[in-house]
Amino acid sequence: MSKIERETDFFEEDDLATNPAPRVPICLCLDTSGSMEGRRCEELRKGVERFYNSIKSDEVAVNSAEVCIVTFGGKAKCISEFKTLAQITELPAFDVAGETPLGEAVNLALDKLDARKEEYKDNGVDYFQPWLVIMTDGYATGLQSEFDRAVKRVESLVKDRKLTVFPIGVGSSADMEGLNKLSPKRQALKLRGLNFKEFFEWLSQSVCRVSQSVVGEKITLDVEAIKAWSEIEF
After folding, report:
1. How many angstroms separate the CA atoms of 194 and 172, rounded?
2. Among 42-51, 126-135, 217-226, which is the least confidently predicted range?
3. For residue 194, which of 13, 43, 57, 147 is within the disulfide window of CB 3.0 to 4.6 Å?
4. What CATH number labels 22-226?
5. What is the C-alpha separation between 140 and 51, in angstroms, rounded?
6. Does residue 108 contact residue 150 with C-beta atoms inside 8 Å?
7. What's residue 14's pLDDT?
8. 3-state secondary structure the chain
9. How far apart are CA 230 and CA 198, in angstroms?
10. Annotated domain spans of the chain
11. How high is the pLDDT of residue 6?
């Protein structure tokens, strides 16, 4: 595990009762299948580490942004439950193995987001529209029924303005057609080379901008910055 800069005290208990800041829930749904082994996984890990550290340097976002990580390599699993960056002291390990159960992973990520929203409501904590980031370098190999269910759930949530989703393809073998099905409002994007760090830097800046706004306010994304890490124009 990697140490994260600017560590703060880690509280085992949930801080919803003591931290009234409106939350920005972000679920990272990341491909850790066998094809990600080597430099791809290493650059992905470095990108997530930069994402953590960038948010930790923002005095508002550090207590507002909550991150959950779901990986899919052989099977879909949650390797880090929702926590604010003030609570996170280490980067979880990304174990690379197996195939690419993308549909199962997206459904697990949506389940985690739904459960967290209920916890916000139960504790009277306001929250911004959740974000789901999906990154994969291949084709979904899980059950077709799971992928189809994930597509329907994403479409419904995006249509109802209850989710912002960013499907990102990595490398020449990424199934962009499949990712487009998980991107009902805009074209899925393709990472330029291994620019994971640039993507996660953009993501952290976007999250910080959201955390400093008012819940319900429309946020404009930095389209020019997207071009720095994406092969496909936004």
Report:
1. 11
2. 217-226
3. 43
4. 3.40.50.410
5. 26
6. no
7. 63
8. CEECCCCCCCCCCCCCCCCCCCEEEEEEEEECCHHHCCHHHHHHHHHHHHHHHHHHCCCCHHHHEEEEEEEEECEEEEEEEEEECCCCCEECCCCCCCCCCHHHHHHHHHHHHHHHHHHHHHCCCCECCCEEEEEECCCCCCCHHHHHHHHHHHHHHHHCCCCEEEEEECCCCCCHHHHHHCCCCCCCEEECCCCHHHHHHHHHHHHHHHHCCCCCCCCCCCHHHHCCCECCCC
9. 9
10. 22-226
11. 39
170-200: per-residue pLDDT in tens? 999 999 999 999 999 889 999 999 999 999 9
Q: Which two tokens stand for residue 47?
A: 């990108």
Q: What is the distance in angstroms between the CA of the first residue and the CA of the last residue of the chain?
A: 34
**73 CB-near residues (< 8 Å, 6+ apart):** 31, 32, 33, 34, 36, 95, 96, 97, 98, 99, 100
